[in-house]
Structure formats: C-alpha cells, structure tokens
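Handout, section B. The chain below has 309 residues.
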Amino acid sequence: MIEYDTILDYMPKNGLRTVVHQGLKNAGFNVDEIRVRTDRPLSFVSGNKIYFVKPDGALTAGMDKGFIVERFSLNTLFRSICENSVYAYLDEIRQGFVTLRGGHRVGFVGRAICDSDGRIENFRDISSVNIRIAREIKGSADDIMPYILSGTSIKSTLIVSPPGVGKTTVLRDMARQLSGFGIKVGVADDRGEISAMFQGVPCNDIGANTDVIENAPKADGINILLRTMSPQVIITDELVTDREVNAVCYAKGSGCAIIASVHGSTFEEVKEKPAFLPLFQNHVFENLVILSMSNSGSRRVETEVRQLK
C-alpha cells in the first residue's frame, strides 16, 4: 500500500478516499490506473482488465454495482491535485495532465476552453480523471541492456509501445543501469515521470551519474543537456513533434547516443508517421524495442528487439 499513499493524500476526505483505500487493500494485484468519472462508477485498471469498486471496497465486474462518484468529489479531487491553485498549474492543465510527487500522472478531460486560434487555454467541468500509478521495477530493462551496451559503445535505441505497457518504467531502469556503469546520462523529463523530482531530488532511482532537466519542453531540454552536461547518452520519453525529432537527430549528430520512446504497436506503424521519418532517414537508432502486453492481459510485458544496423 505504500506506493498508493501519495495518491490517497490527494483524495477528498469523504467517501471517495475511503472507498479507494479499501478497494486498493482488497485488490490482490497491482492497480495500474484509478479512473474517477462524474456520476459514474469508480473503477481500477490492471493490465487489460477493468474492475469496478463497490461502496464497501469490494471489486466487481458489474458496473451497475460500482460506487458512484459525485461531482463535488471529483471537483475536490481536481483542486487537490492542483494544490488548490489551478492558476499555478495552468501550463500542465493545458496539456491535460499533472504529475504528482512520486511520478504518478493524473490525466483529465472535460469541457475545453480555447482561444481564438483554437488552442486550449483551460478546462472547466472536469468529467474524468485518470490516475496512472508509477512504479519502479528494477531489472525491467535487463533483457534489453545487452543490446544497448556493446563494449564501450552505447547503441541508440527506440522503444515502441502502446500506452500503459511500461515504456517509462523501462526507460527509468535503463538510466539507472547505464549510470551504474559509469556512463554520463542526461534525462529530458518534460513531464517528470522518469525521475519524479521533488525539490531538486529525484524520487526514483535513476543513478548517481544521471542529470535531469524536468518540465522543460523536450526539444529545449535535449539541447540544454547537450550544451551544459556533456552526456554520453540522452534518455527521453514519448517523441511526438517535428521539433522533438529534430532535437534528437541533432543530438545524435553531435556524438551523443539517444534512447527514446514513441507510442505505437509495430515498427511499420511508426515508420508510416511523417514526423518520425527523419529518425530513419538519418539512421539515428541501432536498436528497436517493441513492448507489448501478454495475450492473457496480465502485467507480463513481452519484449522484441530488432537490430537496425
């Protein structure tokens, strides 16, 4: 239950906290997500399975038996996540998520308020909150490390994974292990999920030789690390934009190895995305790692490694 304590601290001190706490105690497995929706049943997600939480904390497959979350409770939870200062968290809110101490990520949706150019300025009437529970799993990168370290050289590696399978967990363990080999590691952690920094100290074990830039836009973070920390390898999560891809290509061209992740299910799917084309045209990566959930829907992650060069 220790890993859930931070999350429970944010829960409103009413029925919701009690039900979530009891439900977590009753779960005989790791809960990956806590789903809170206005006027709908509270649910837990583990692997590919959804469990509804009854008012007494028992878990059930029947959604009609789940504890119904009142609007007041969800609004109170949202304000608590924002430390009762929504204005201070506007940058995160515009992106649709807030990262809590410990690396837990809280996503939310509702009615978006947009400016004249269609860019999201804020959210109102929050309708759904998804609390993704971060865990350190030391050794999760063991199967991949032999492909990354070859003698004294570091092989740049791209991790492809659908959401929720565990790529951030693997990246975190890679940082820890590479650091343990005396390698200078830089982490561009724009959402704070890899390191989970709190007042300048990482809550997660990312190694003694690892330097982190947190909350900066990913491309800026990569460039700052290159200029200031002379990393031998830069690790970053979830490449999306052209600017991020260009920063990765520049870093690799500057002699720094890159370990990064993207959302996807197959290599072919990733190659078809125009934003990622420069990664392959410039031969940025030597290894491709595909993570997927086991067919049984359990938390066992299946790993496939391809060597691109």
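Note. The two ends are 44 Å apart (CA to CA). Compare this with the example in section A.
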